[in-house]
Amino acid sequence: MAAAAILALAAAGGDAAAGDRPAKKAQPVEREHPSGAFTYRVPPAWTVEPSPVEAAVIELSGDGLRARMLFKKEEMGFDGLHSLCMLERLAGPMAIDPRIQYEYDFLSGEAAGRRFLDSAFFVGYDPPIQGHRVWRQRTLTVVGEGQSLCVNTFAPAELWRKSKQVRETLEAIVSSITFK
Are 16 and 23 within 8 A, CB to CB? Predict the structure, then answer.
């Protein structure tokens, strides 16, 4: 499980560009969070930018997928932070279908002095985002060692269901997070 890999401080060796058919795999690029607290890897063509809305958030995007990382140099309320991070969306409240379909919710664990919560669900948007009405969102919250990290990944639902490459790409990004 990705959360266990994060908490065990091990970068899962999965290649972020792995796919459904054999192909030459691009090596992921290791990036350091602006705080210096952790590193992560992204596919080489992805962009990584600070959020224009929230200074504590960095936004990652590429291949029609997205991710956001919220980091605080303090331990925040575990359940409360996870709930707040689950409310992160790709659009404002008026463009979101209030009916959320959960794949799983509030899976929890602890390793290497850090606790984690993990949830995944599907969110509908009107108007569609990047041409897709339904997106799968995963929220992983990690708290401990005086730090709090929330990672949200976003994929169009039909791509998530059909493409092994999409699933492996997002899992590789999350699994690559290594705390210093």
Answer: no
Instruction: Give DSSP secondary structure letters for 34-69.
Output: TTSSEEEEE-TT-EEEE-SS-TTEEEEEETTEEEEE
Q: What ranges do the domains of the chain cover?
A: 2-179
pLDDT, one tens digit per residue, over 42-101 is: 999 999 999 998 889 999 999 999 999 999 999 998 899 999 999 999 999 999 999 999
Look up the CATH architecture of domain 2-179: 3-Layer(aba) Sandwich (3.40)
Q: What is the pTM of this model?
A: 0.86
- Residue type present at position 165: Q
Tell me the C-alpha distance between 118 and 116, whole Å: 7
Between CA 104 and CA 111 the distance in angstroms is: 20
3-state secondary structure of 67: strand
